[in-house]
Amino acid sequence: MYDILYNILGNQVVAWIIAAALPLFVFILPFALFAVWLERKVSAHMQDRLGPMRVGWHGVLQTIADIIKLIQKEDIIPAEADKKLFNLAPVLVFAGSYAAFAAIPFSSKYIGSNAEVGIFYVIAVSSFVVVGILMGGWASNNKYALLGAMRSAAQIVSYEIPSAIVILTMVMLTGTLSLDKFSQMQTAYFWNWFILGGPGSGITKFLLIPFMIVGFTILYISTLAEVNRTPFDIPEAESELVAGYHTEYSGMKFAMFFLAEYGNMFAVSAIITLLFFGGYQSPFGYLGNTFKLPWLVPIEQVFWFTGKGIFFVFVQMWLRWTLPRLRVDQLMHLCWKFLIPYSFVNLIIVGFITLFR
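^ thats the sequence. predicted structure below, dont judge the formating
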């Protein structure tokens, strides 16, 4: 993306600034506004309600009105809080979420950084979110905020293990850490997606299918916990902790936590799409290739990638309004006694199958 902008503008600094700002203004902010509205509508319809209806058509402008309200609110800092860390925490959480988008390829032409270690970078930079949450909970000088932050840190660190083992399984199968190469390997049609055994043919492709489904299931459950979504939302359990680690935050600082949460929801959905569901590749071929319009192909790729990602975000919302919240002991039991052993066995079996490919 930087190279394209540099060729157009001829200025390195301007090209870097625009390349860095594009994901925020072109995708993350509009997506967060859309996702908040979508979650309200999904929850409302699941409870036989209509949801927001007053601001714009079917309440589509309600989230924008809420953001304007948050911008105008007074910025309150508790008297006994650690002011520096209190102010830094939402920035750190948002930065961790935002930085993950730098390595996510939306199409073959729109990649922030085509790094060879893309998936490793995403795992590493997303750790800033844990640091920010712990910092915000501690700096608030509030027992509910501190308990929520400690719960969140324990939960995210625990569920990173099965996530990392599943990602290691896919890296072992493909031999690359580049997220763009993951997409390129699954090109052409949907039967080349790794959830269906990946490209190629033969008995090993069919042997891989059940273990790919197991890997996808473990990764999806783990990512739910990593973004604090139900049934793993104990860090901000309203009935126990008011609002958890962001109890004391208001105005735009609260909005930054909110924005980071919805950004993370899409980021983990994008990783699942890239690893198992073809990435930005179309499942049925490209209209651009059919009608000899090569410029249309990257646009179609953006459509397919965002469509798949939003589908998995929708499932996260669906689960939130369907499942009850787990207790802390149940959450840890699921991770350490089921997901980690199963993901490790899955890794070993896929390793043996890979040897005979």
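The two ends are 35 Å apart (CA to CA).
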